[in-house]
Amino acid sequence: MSADAIVATALSRHFVGRRPLFSAKPAPVARAVDGVSFRVPRGSCFAIVGESGSGKSSLARLLVGLLQPTAGEVVVDGEPLSALDATGLRRLRRRIQLVLQDPRASLDPRMSVFETLHEALAVHGLHPGRKARAERIATTIGLVGLSPAHLDRFPHELSGGQRQRAAIARAIICEPDILVLDEPVSALDVSVQAQIINLLMELKQRLSLTFVVITHDLALVEHIADAVGVMYLGRFVEQGAAENVCDAPRHPYTQSLMAATSHAGATGKAGVLEGSIPSPLAVPSGCSFHTRCPAARLIAARDPASAVATPDGLLPRRCVTQDPVSQAAPNGASTATCHFQDELPTARPQLQPA
Amino acid sequence: MSAAAGTTNQAPETGTAAPAAAKQRWSGLRRVVAQPKGLVGLTLVVLYLLLAIFGPLLAPHDPFRQDFAATLKAPSAAHWFGTDQLGRDVFSRVLIGARATLGVGVGGVTFAFLFGVPLGVLAAWRRGWIDALVMRVIDVMLSFPDIVFALAIVAVLGASTQNVIIAVGVVSVPIFARTARAVTLSILAEPYIEGSASLGASPKRIILRHVLPNISGTLLTLSTLLFASTLLSASGLGFLGLGTQPPNPEWGTMLGESRSYIRSNPYLATFPGLFLAGSALAFNLLGDALRTIYDPASRHAVRKRPWLGALRRKARPASRDAKPEATTGPAPAVSVRDLRLAFRAGSGLLEVVRAVDLDIQPGRTLAVVGESGSGKTTLLRAIATLANPEQVAVTGGTILIGGESAIDLTPSAMMDLRRRKIGVVFQDAASALNPVLTIGAQIAEAVRIGTDLDAAAVRQRCAELLSDVGISDPERRLAMYPHQFSGGMKQRIVIAIALAQDPQLLLADEPTSALDVTIQQQILALLGDIQRKRGMAVLIVTHDLNLVARFADDVAVMYAGAIVEHGAVAQVLDSPRHPYTQALRAAIPGGAGRRGKPLDAIGGEPPMVGMLPAGCAFRPRCQRTHGRPECGRAEPPAEMVAGRKVACFFAQEGLS
Amino acid sequence: MFITRRLAMAVPTLLVVSVLVFFFMDMIPGDPAQMLAGPSATNEEIDVIRDALGLNQPLLTRYGLFIKGLWDPSVATSFLTHRPVALELAERLPNTLIVAIGGLVLGLILGVISGVVCALRQGGVAEAGITVLTLTGISMPIYWLGLLCIWLFAVHLRWLPAAGASTPAHFVLPILVIATRPTAMFSRLITANLLETMGKDYLDTARAKGLSETRVIVFHALRNSLVAAVSVAGVQFGGMLGGSVITETVFGIPGVGRLLVEAVTRSDYPVIQYTILMFAIFFVLINLATDLLTQWLDPRTREARTT
After folding, report:
1. Which of A342, B150, C82, C105 has the most CB atoms less than 10 A away?
2. For residues B405 and B91, what is the distance between their CA atoms, to the nearest angstrom?
3. How far is the C-alpha of B503 from the C-alpha of B421, rounded, in Å?
4. Which chains form contacts with chain B, at 3 or more CB pairs under 8 Å?
């Protein structure tokens, strides 16, 4: 057993669009995931944060082998996914399970909770025998805080929180090592979210699980993650220990995200990013964040000599033309992909009162 | 693995899967019979099937025996349906014809099902060239009108019952294949398929256990409906003399034979036609009932009688105390007193908003916070005069908008109120814009109404509105359609429409919860700017406490239809007094000190509408109620505590 | 962009359709030449006919000849009347088109009106009545309905002629009868679609502007439903062209459908071939036209996202 539950190396996934008929133009390529590397130590929680269109959901599907990478490699528990055939991949899936965002949609509406859990055991031939399986199922629903009375219910007969508990039960019933959780609480009511977060933390401890959490919610990341990767247009713009990234973000994008989710009780405009995330079909040149970067505008205004005029305003030439490389923070606990990260204030940003 | 260790001891339950599945299976039948259409259709279908099976036994006469002494007789006691041109008993021929007629339908649909469904499922599952090939074949097959196609097949194979079955079957193959492909594709896109795949389920298992059971309802519906049309085309071939050959009785063939006698003996055509139409009707009724159950598109909640219901309601005299009260100081933009709203359920009324009081002064922002089912959206829609009177009843209280009652208005008064005073922003901007109209047309509609601006002035105003909401190059954008904008831009356009008539009150229902974090900030900043510039009153409904903290002046926390805490944002959020508000604050992750520690979750879930506990609605989930019988006896009234209104008997607790 | 792709797709479909119809001749059991010559013909006579039909030539040449028949009336003649098939078709096509187009237009008008009423009066007597009528409409064998109408209006009341196509009055009954099915179909489609649209937020956006309910329904809701109706109209039109084989038999209209039925019963193969080919070409063109029209009416499919 290796020390890392998951190692992703230079992972890329490009989707090739349809080439227009009677056109010399090449088919459009969407870079959903573009050269992402990270490692998740056994027993830790790694969070992937990003907006919609950042490629975080594609990344989750690469990790569990539901998508094949265009380039790069995923190693789960010392086993490279690319070396596995279809059967081997299915066997591996017992150990790495996916929990999806909307439990209403992720449970088969025509299967009772019992049947859903039973299927998981049947697929991997675990606990053979009717009695053994029923026992395992009873134990598992106890673990997620449901009662045997829920076994006969169909998804539409459960509340949102109960459905997510059932989805979690399906994921842990085969005794996996790793859970990939795609927005595990964002479809739930606030008061129920806390219950599910607590349940997940408890299960992680109790079953010594490794978590990969995909989310847009930095508050959730701060609460449960050990390490975090902040994703923008298919790449990690910043990654490292959760404390460092959240408390002292170095990349302007992370800083804006943190400002947007901070709990300050004031109204203000500072930190509000302009525009929206560009299409992955047309990733901007240089630093892909330059079209929206507030820091780049400030720097360009301070030093107009090394700036260029673009449709998005006056910007430093480096940001528009040069791909930034990942640099470590002075304390070594995080890395950020920004040309000017050393010139930016790193304190946790607070919104200014209007 | 240690996963199973140390878990709770539960009695093992065995054999629960089978009864659960059975429950599901029989529920389909129950739901069919519960509809009048389904009950009538199913009964008729069963009767017809019995007729097809037992018809020959019931026939009083030999259907083939000719009697030239008694040709073309009208119905009589001896011959209930009369006799035909050869003196044969029509009643007996109709009874016996049931088997041939329905048999052709069954045969044709079975043929089409057996070839079409596997083809469609295969195409959807394998995609790629198989899919392309199947689709091309379907295209070609659909290039022939069905009855012409069937005619051609009969022309090649010769006229006989068996060939008619093949002909009508082949004609329906592409319909089955196309439908099976479409539903399979949509099922394969469901997250639970991805869930099973990630579980490690084999493709075979996914198809057999997940896809087929979930498409079976649609296919059953299609089979039933196709059965009716197959029956009609097959009998049509018989009518043309190309189906079942005389002297064998089949309803279509009998109709064809009766054509020559329509002038003198119209009853000859009456009975076989009646039975034929009846059988098609039976299957159509059943199919319709099945579709209501299995087609998600026909199942969703429907607004009933939206306009005529409203139009027909006569202008009632303002019965309730709708007159503006004499107030000192500026009149509030909206003033709600003791408002009670109820859903009209089948049996009666389910109270969803209970005795809500609120005021918003011009230039202020009130946020109504609550979870799903708290009644916050219903409250907003009632204030917006958009609550559907067929679904929501105002059971008490008043809503005054700028001093005018918003309840029980005539249609024209309602239109007038909406036009002059109210702007609404919806949660899902994508569905709040009409997809087939340009945004220019949609904004102009709001600008034009009630004014006499000329076209150029309207256009000018629309462009100004777009720049007001931060959209550059407005002239060009006006000619674009909603789908050409991103989510954040669409919400800006919805805001522009809401602002078009300079409302005094802007109502926003979760305006940012469908948007990304960074876009949420943009929209909130925009709303804040606009409010400051125009001095409107804003009512925003949300579940997001962070948003409230940033954006609102006042906050009203709703739980189970009632406002439990209401006051200035700084007071309510920083030092909440109601246990629910306190628990909500504590349940949100964040704050460096709490990292990794369990959250103070609220146990249980919010109560369902109409199923409130006795006394305080929050009691079952409340930490503070322990050992206090008062909470179960009566609902706590809202009282001023520490500068805000709180509905809790023990709100003073902890205050020193 | 879409137009070129869609046109490009129609070409192979047409090609395959024409090949299928061509091979149809070969699938028929028995020798067409012999059938044409009659039972008493000698082998020499049959050979002459075979030669005249071009049956002795290679497959590709025969296919070329078949296609040439599309515009050269001298290539294909009816076995029965010995007149060019093209002439037979051209004479009868107008009758068929009058009935089909008349039925479609009438069905569209009645269907939209009843569909709107049904959607807006949910739960009322009107809804129940229209639902029963539409269900009866789609369940009604039009050949039976036709016979009943002939008996009632032509025999009993003597208001309208029973059969033929010589005066405009002759077309009234066929159009009324053939319109039942499309009326029912459009009515159900519009109802279902309107009910779905009724739940959409954009109607509330429109209401919040202060528009009248009538304008909200007609301008915002119905407009969207009509897009769906157009796509179904194509299928219905094609269905009615095909249905002409039955209507024209019932009402004794000399049209293409009746020509086909007679040709099938009397094994007049050139007529069968070219009639079916004509129906198929019509169908492909109608589908093409509906696709393009729907595309044009619905901006979402018209162009790619640009912002």
Report:
1. B150
2. 69
3. 4
4. A, C
Residues contacting B253, CB < 8 A, separation 6+: B97, B235, B238, B239, B241, B243, B244, B245, B246
Give one word for B88, left, alpha or beta, with left for phi > 0 and alpha for psi -120 to 50.
Answer: beta
Residue with tokens 């067929």: B390
Cα B251 to the chain's mean position, in Å?
40
Q: What is the ipTM of this complex?
A: 0.85
Asked if C164 and C158 touch (Cβ cutoff 8 Å), the reply is no
B651 DSSP 8-state letter: T
CB contact, 8 Å: A114 with chain B?
Answer: yes
Contacts of A190 in chain B (CB under 8 A): 371, 543, 545, 584, 587-588
Global pTM reads 0.82
Nearest partner of C75 among C93, C47, C52, judged by Cα: C52
Say how many C-beta atoms besides its own lie within 10 A of residue B348's C-beta: 9
A 20-59 → C contacts, CB under 8 A = 20-22
Pick the closest to residue B505 from B435, B423, B400 (CA basis).
B423
Say if CB B228 and CB B283 are below 8 A apart.
Answer: yes
Q: Determine if residue B171 is left, alpha or beta; phi over 0 gives left, psi from -120 to 50 gives alpha, anything else beta.
A: alpha
Helix %, strand %, coil % of chain C (to 5):
80, 0, 20
Query: Is the C-alpha dihedral spanning A26, A32, A37, A39 positive or negative?
Result: negative
Assess contact for C259 and C92: CB atoms under 8 A.
yes
Q: Are A21 and C8 in contact (CB under 8 A)?
A: yes
CA distances (Å), C68 to each of A267, C17, C63, C178, in order? 78, 15, 8, 34
Chain B residue numbers with beta carbons less than 8 Å from the beta carbon of A266 are 549-550
Measured in angstroms, the CA of C5 and the nearest CA of chain A are apart by: 7
Nearest residue of A to residue B600, measured between CA atoms: A194
Structure tokens at A85: 């055939």
Distance of CA B286 to the CA centre of its chain: 21
CB burial class (10 A; 0-12, 13-18, 19+) of residue C92?
Answer: buried
- Mutate which of A18, A19, A22, A281 to disrupt the C interface (most C C-beta within 10 Å)? A22
Measured in angstroms, the CA of C52 and the nearest CA of chain A are apart by: 44
Q: Which two tokens stand for residue C170?
A: 């002759």
Cβ of B521 within 8 Å of Cβ of A93? The answer is no
The tens place of each residue's pLDDT in chain A, 354 residues long, gives 578 899 999 999 998 876 655 556 677 788 889 999 999 999 999 999 988 888 888 999 999 888 899 999 999 988 898 888 888 888 888 899 999 888 778 888 888 999 999 999 998 888 888 999 999 999 999 999 999 999 999 888 888 889 999 999 999 999 999 999 999 988 888 888 899 999 999 999 999 999 999 998 888 888 899 999 999 999 999 999 998 888 888 899 998 888 877 654 433 444 678 888 888 888 888 899 998 888 888 888 888 888 888 888 889 998 998 889 888 888 888 899 999 888 877 655 544 433
- List the Cα angle B337/B340/B342 in 5-degree steps: 160
Q: The tokens of B487 are what?
A: 């989510």
What letter would DSSP give residue B89?
B
Q: Distances in Å between the alpha carbon of C13 and those of A174, C176, C284? A: 51, 34, 8
- In angstroms, the CA C294 to CA C54 distance is 44
C17–B450: do the CB atoms touch at under 8 Å? no
Tokens in use for C307?
A: 């912002």
Assess whether the previous peptide bond of A148 is cis (omega < 30° from 0). no
Sign of the torsion formed by the C-alpha atoms of C145, C146, C151 and C156: positive
- Terminal-residue alpha carbon distance, chain C: 19
